[in-house]
Structure formats: structure tokens, C-alpha cells
Amino acid sequence: MKNDQNLNSRRTGTGENEDTLTNRQGHPVTDNQNIRTVGNRGPATLENYDFLEKISHFDRERIPERVVHARGAGAHGYFETYGKAGDEDVLKYTRAKVFQGAGKQTPVFVRFSTVAGAKESPETARDPRGFAVKFYTEDGNWDLVGNNLKIFFIRDPLKFPDMIHAFKPDPVTNIQNPERMFDFVSQSPETTHMITFLFSPWGIPANYRQMQGSGVNTYKWVNDNGEAVLVKYHWEPLKQGIKNLTQKEADEIQSKNTSHATQDLYEAIERGDYPEWELCVQIMSDEEHPELDFDPLDDTKLWPADQFPFLPVGKMVLNKNPENYFAEVEQAAFGTGVLVDGLDFSDDKMLQGRTFSYSDTQRYRVGANYLQLPINSPQKRVATNQRDGQSAYRVDTAPGRNPHVNYEPSLLDGLKEAEQEGQEHQPHYNGKLVREPIDRKNEFGQAGETYRNFEDWEKDELIRNLVDALKVCDPRIQKQMIENFTKADEEYGRRVLEGLDKAMEEMNAKEHTGSAGADSAVDKARKMGHEADPY
């Protein structure tokens, strides 16, 4: 069917050339400047078919933007496997074919994004950056969906909608307010580690090319024997390095360009300066690891690199820009549940919650048949019994099969189950079904360690940014945040307290709806505006 459509698209009608404009039905458009009216000043008539088709499609050109990760950019490229995990044959850990055979290349599409902002929000925002990679493997698609930072705010998916609501604009004023965010954060101590990263220079990467990526969640690798290990994924920039921005630098860039990261990525690829990342994994035995002071499935924590070293497994090169932003970047749909044989889920609670949410979101945004779009479709055969739904592009069945059979099992020449290759991984569970937090929370230990590992200028920037955001917050929120920072590190909490005390003395007491900087901008616009007479 797809080949037939491509053949039809090359045909030209009578009197047409290759550059003749047509409507979506293939009819030549002879006048694209004027609608049909009764006289050249008269009313329009209902049979303006070309106009009605054009405007009704225009009315529907936008699909619902992502609730999170709405602002994004993307590019095509390839992943080249090393065939090893560090110095060992990768087959020791996983039978996934994407990692086998040194030098083998797999096509990829990558979408970078900001998280909390809307589709046209500035790319200088203090915000995590999404880093999602779609591998078009020989066994079907694999999506590695993560962020630039290696940890997350929360560890339980039940809190995710509340967290995003707190980070998004006020439902009454439609203005983002740090008080809302810190109100949630202050009551969720597990966020302290992520907040420490976010309000440091690591919270504003210089661009998409010069930032790290991470799968964030804990997954599993499974070998031919069905044996599993826990694994974390990390993308480390190769030739382009890592760069972050201070708030002042970000403000200067934003005043001139709100799409600087999209432009940087596009232009680098156009001039042949292809960005590269090395994919590294951390591997841990699939156990509870009581020797650690945290649960290894807790995504608010880092695995110590000295105990669980970064093992290189391959590299990724981005070498082709999208031909159409909407068709590829905007409609690209990722899901944490999109795994191939040899890759598996861990019991990471956030991973379990994301696995439902991501694919469910794409069906709402793009439609039930979003996987038939070229950007999302696997680059291999697809044969399913799923049928129909809005915008069904083709029937995903195998050639030569009985088209009347859209179910399984069947004796009437329908699709058959595949044979299991390698032993199935079968984790064992023996416990009560409960609603309980994990035992080893250790909310503040790594946050303090991260603070102490920052360079002095990064600490200064962190304190400055936190004070600027917290000074417009309710005193109860300020008190709780200082308490949390102090539990992480005494100097950390003391410096935030001292900074806040000074800021509160200098700040004019007034009702606010946003940050102090936002309030100042409102005042400046009011005072600096130039008067004009009506016309």
C-alpha cells in the first residue's frame, strides 16, 4: 500500500507539471489567491472547496503538546556498538543484538527537550533536559528515554502529577511561581538531591550538544541463560565536551534568542560538525545490596562510580537533520516500555509508572496508530492483529496470510507466536502487596556529597539561584527548605539562610505572583513604556 502511494504521488494529471499545486485530493489548484464570492466584494459561498479544505486542515495543524517535554529538537544518526561492556564480551550480560558485533551500526533518532515549559518556551530555562533515543534495531524499536541529569526529583510515580502541577503555571494566574514549586519540594525531602543539581549551573546546559544524557531509571540486562543484572545507562559527550550556563549568561542569551539550542544543533549538523556521545553502562548484580546506604532502585540516587564503574558499550553520532520538524520531531513518540529481547524492566517504581504513562500519552496526543508514522515505525517487518482506530495508515499483517483472520490462535492461516530465543528471565517474588516507601531513603546524604563536590563558583551560583527563588516564598517554605539543606550539609543550609536574611532586608515587601525578577520586569515595563495617542 505504501509503495502504491509513492507511485501515485509521481503521476501528473493533464496540464500539470512537477511543480503544479494541488489539493489533498490531487486536484490542481488554479487560483490560490482568491476565494469564490458573489462579485468581487460579495459574500462567500459554501462550495469554496479548496478554501474549506485548506482552512479546515490549517485549523487542525497542531496536535496537543506534550504535558512535559513539550519544547524539543531532534536529529537522526546512528549507534555503533563496541561489542563489549568495558573489557568484557557484552554477551556475558545481555543477548540484545543491538550491542553485539563490534562496529555494527543501528539507525537512531534523538529528541532533546526541556521539561516544564510549553512548546515555545525559552531553551535557557532552569529545567532538566530530556534526552530520548529511538534505536531502530533489527529486533524492532528500543526507546531509551531519559534526561541530562542522572537522577530525578521523586521515586514514586503517584507523586508525579502533583510535582508537575506545582512546577507548571498557577491555574488561576497562569504564571509560574517558585513558591508553588518549593511548596511541593519542601514537603518531599527526596527532591533535595535533584534541587541541588537543578539550581547549580548543571540546571542550564549551554545547549543540547554539550550536555550529558542518562536513562535515569534502573533497567535490567538479560543474557542467553536468562540471568539478569541491574543496569544504568549514561550518554557522555565525546568531542564536543560539557558546558553549563550561569543564570546571568542564560538571561543574556534569552534576551536575544529563545531557540538557541535548537539553532545550535541544526547548524552544527548542517556544517558537518556531528555531535557524538559514548554510551556507558553501570552494572550491578540483581540483588537488594544491603551494604549500600540507599536502595539501588531509587532514582533520586547516583550509583557510586568507584564501586560501579562506567563501562563503554558504544557511541552515537548525529549526522542528519529532520526534513520536517512536525512530522519527525513533534510526532516522535517514545516509551520506557519499548524494549527488545535482552533488555528488561527492573522494579524501579518510577520506571514501572512511566512505562504505562508514556505510551498512553502518545495514543492521546498522536492517535491510536502513532506507531504507523514513519518516524515511529520500526525499520523491520510488523505483523499484528491490531486493527482500525483513527488515522489507520495500513493493515499491519504479513503478506500471504489470511486477511479475514485478525485474531490468534487460529487454524485458518493467521499469525503465529514466535519462538522464545534464550531462556526467559523469571524473577522471583515473595512478599505482601503494600503501600509503603522503600526502607533506605537516605534523603540528604548524596545531596550533601554533591554540594561538597561542586567547585566554589558552582556553590556560589547554587546559593545565589536558590536565594533568588526562595525569597518570594512563604516563610514556612523557606524554613523547611533551609532545614532540608542543612541536613544535607551544614554549610549548605547556613549559606542559604544567610543569603535569604540579606535578601529579605533588601526586598520590598509586596504581594507577588512570580519571582522577584519577574515582578521587577513587570514594574519596568510599566515605567519604561512610551505613551502614544490613539489612532
TrEMBL record:
One of its GO terms (cellular component) is cytoplasm. Keywords: Heme, Hydrogen peroxide, Iron, Metal-binding, Oxidoreductase, Peroxidase. InterPro entries: Catalase, Catalase_AS, Catalase_clade1/3, Catalase_core, Catalase_haem_BS, Catalase_immune_responsive, Catalase_sf. Residues 521-535 have a biased composition (Basic and acidic residues). Its EC number is 1.11.1.6. Residues 22-416 form the Catalase core domain. Heme binds at Y358. Residues 1-41, 378-404, 510-535 are annotated as: Disordered. One of its GO terms (molecular function) is metal ion binding. GO terms for biological process: hydrogen peroxide catabolic process; response to hydrogen peroxide. It is an enzyme of class 1 (oxidoreductase). Residues 1-37, 378-389 have a biased composition (Polar residues). SUPFAM superfamilies: Heme-dependent catalase-like. Its cofactor is heme. Belongs to the catalase family. This is Catalase.
